[in-house]
Amino acid sequence: MTERAAEREPLGRVVRPVVPLAVADFADGMAFGALAVSIGLGVLAPVVMSLLVFSGSAQYGAIAVLGHDGSLWAVVGTAAALNARYLLMGTTIAPALTGSPWSRVGRALLITDGSWAVAHRGGGRYDMRVLTVAGLLCLCGWTAGTALGAVLGGAIGDPARFGLDAAYPVFFLGLLRSQLTSGRAWSLAAVGVAAVAGLAPFTPPGIPVLLAGAAGAVAGAVLGARR
């Protein structure tokens, strides 16, 4: 689909596939807000964090470090390591970022795992309108969920009791399945799964996903070079 054709597509058709993503962000945001309150961050701090940082992996990593009395440098280092994958994602989507510098920066800030995935059209093509709508709705869902989770705090208790901690992983399994359209894609997914399974018992949370993504990228480059 060309960019001009995408702009003519009815907004409702663009929003429809994005709504489940925003709902998952809302549920995950509630879990994050409740966890943040449980370690003593209060209500305002996690909401501001969600609005400005807008990265579930980095925020959960920061909460894990703070919960164990980690230093500020440990928090920053953890967040930077978990968000390193955006360097790879940014290189894939950079050619599709057109317009003024401010427009490109604004859209780049809306790149998340979910918005990047739903905007992908195959063959290195991305629908920027879908990415923008997905990013904005997910930002609203994530921040609103964080606020509600923080306010309810003690009433929610352990988010795992309600399955809120599983909402995002299950949703991403659905996104992954939609991308498995070839033998090569299945092979790369298998590399990622093997890397996570091998590293999870021995490394801190978040690191297996980061290294699995790097392993998948290297494997994809090797397979591509052999074609």
Automatic annotation (TrEMBL):
Tagged with keyword Mitochondrion: no
Highest taxon, organism lineage: Bacteria
Main location: membrane
Topology in the lipid bilayer: Multi-pass membrane protein
Pfam family, one: AzlC
InterPro entries: Brnchd-chn_aa_trnsp_permease (IPR011606)
Subcellular location: Cell membrane
Any Gene Ontology CC annotation: plasma membrane
TM segment ranges: 30-54, 130-153, 206-225
GO annotation (BP), single: L-valine transmembrane transport
Record keywords: Cell membrane, Membrane, Transmembrane, Transmembrane helix, Transport
Assigned protein family: Belongs to the AzlC family.
Protein name as it appears in the record: Branched-chain amino acid ABC transporter permease
Organism, scientific name: Saccharothrix coeruleofusca
